[in-house]
Amino acid sequence: MHSEDATSAAEDAEYRQRSTANWQTAAAGWESERDRMRQISAPVTDWLVDHLELAPGLTVLELAAGPGDVGLRVAEELAGDGRVIVSDRAPAMVEAAGRWAAERGTGGVELRVLDAESLDLPDASVDRVVCRFGYMLVPDREAAFRETRRVLRPGGRVAFAVWAERERNDWATTLWDVLESHAPLPPARPGGPGMFALADRRLVQETLTSAGLEPAAVEEIPVEWRYADFADYWRAAGAVNGGLTRLLPTMSDAEQAELAGAVRAAVERFRDGEGYRLPGLALGVAAGRSR
């Protein structure tokens, strides 16, 4: 292995470890904030479900499920006539999804700890794959899409969502710009995984085609994040943002107060009455596996 390849492989391994730790830590927050996240992401979830083209008896795999919002919605759409594999790389997220499925009384759900880059599933074993905001976060996106194609049956379909350009997602960049100025967070690697790694529509289509998937739709989906006041915003951010969840316990009370003050000043431009409205834009993508 060339030294450059070895460095890249080491960086990918370090990222996987850090990312899994972040999501493990954030799982409790995602569970406590699941109703809010479900409401905010509803336009994206609706788009994904519509473009999965569901039918009775299908087997559907959800990747990077978090607490399982999309997969449980799919299972409820199938109404017991089908099978949904709700999966995530972080075991704590899968456990949270299981609790939510039990609370909702959702049947036809199988819970699995799975890595999108190396799926422990047989070839041609599922009819649909769905992933909301996951593919852009894996180090080897090409491998993840190849694995998606491998497990899809001929004629199968994948529907997924990623975030559009940085400039269209102030809700995320405003917070991260402040965090990066106050804490030694690992810098994003050019071309590496991250929120905006698949924001380029042409790159998405090229990556799909290279993996043997045929792009069928790429559409913009507006998203809006709403908070009653700053305390509501800060509590939610600290709960669902894995990096922030791990950072805050390492800071003194004074450092936390300083960070919160800086974030408050940064989000003030999004004030709407007593609360805040932060804009975002997702991309919905659908593709198929040809026969």
Task: Walk me through the structure.
The protein is an alpha/beta fold. Helix content is 47%, strand content 22%. The chain has 11 helices and 8 strands. Strands 1, 2, 3, 4, 5, 6, 7 and 8 form an 8-stranded mixed beta sheet that branches. Helix 4 links the parallel strand 1 and strand 2. Helix 1 packs parallel to helix 5 and helix 1 packs across helix 9. The chain is globular and about 60 Å long. The model has no long low-confidence stretch (mean pLDDT 93).
Draw up the topology in text.
Blueprint: H1 3-32, H2 34-40, H3 42-52, E1 59-63, H4 69-78, E2 83-88, H5 91-104, E3 109-113, E4 126-132, H6 141-151, E5 152-163, H7 170-182, H8 201-210, E6 214-227, H9 230-240, H10 242-247, H11 253-267, E7 271-272, E8 275-288
Parallel strand pairs: 1-2, 1-4, 2-3, 4-5
Antiparallel strand pairs: 5-8, 6-8, 7-8
Helix pairs in contact: 1-5, 1-9, 7-11
